[in-house]
# Entry
Amino acid sequence: MSNNYTRHVLASKAEQLTADYKTRNPNYKTHKGMDFIDYAGKCVITAVADGVVDSCRSDVIGVDHKYNTAGNYVRIKHPNGIYTRYLHLETGSVCVKTGQSVKAGAKLGMMGNTGDSYGKHLHFDVCVAGVYVDPLPYLTGAKGFGTNTAQQPADEDEPAYPELRKGDKVILAKAPLYAASTSSKKANTVTGTYYIYADGIINGRIRITTPKGCADCTGWVNAADCKTDKPAPTQTTALKVGDRVRVRDGALTYSGEWLSNWVYDTVFDVQQVGTLSKQDYIVIGLNGQVTAGMRAEDLIKM
Ligand SMILES: [Zn+2]
# Structure
């Protein structure tokens, strides 16, 4: 069997889709990537494009549906704020290091079944400026990964956006508001504090909502108009078990779930500290009960 991909995440180039990206997957609307297997059982994972290994992990053993959901993984940084991730790799198989430059086709590791995984497969996703986007056009070649040279046609690259993530607070000043990502006519102008409503920069626009956790989308604004007031990331090493922390206003859980409003007004105990460099997580709770797994950058030490 074959596919029409011009870029590949398996050395065999015989990627077989087992779970599609959310917009094409009515049964899995939260799926931020594409899952692949290779029926021939050849499971060498390869870099889809040139880049630099941004973070990786190889010591997760077995499945973990709660904290180390990525399992063993490689994350590659490409130009223009584009990242690709390769998740659930086999324990001990990751053969690249953080900071290492890789070329398209370079071996990263072996397909596995670690983290939030229900069988051996590769989860591949593409993140542009903090938002997971449809990987398919990047695999078919319809979209480019950008380049640091001047040779690449400019219109093939995604423009650079501020770092935005679902739930992030954004400050807008007389920003045009649109009813849809494709509307040419602005419906209104918005000024003030809003929150990112959902993943996905589409046609350069992103959805916003008024209160955090709101079920309703206010409309679409240009991603470039969104100013964030994210604090500088807290170093993981600054937090240890037993520390008292608050949750940054508007922050989501490690896995991207909304939190109840009371969480933001509560001081928690740090119950567990992850040892990862970039994909770190901190378990917080009260009176010995776990409340949530969080990113260190979303916690403020008291
Ligand atoms: Zn997946």
Notes: The first helix runs from residue 136 to 140. Residues 19, 31, 33, 35, 123 surround zinc ion (CB under 6 Å). Confidence is low (pLDDT under 50) at residues 148-162, 232-236. The helical segments are 136-140.
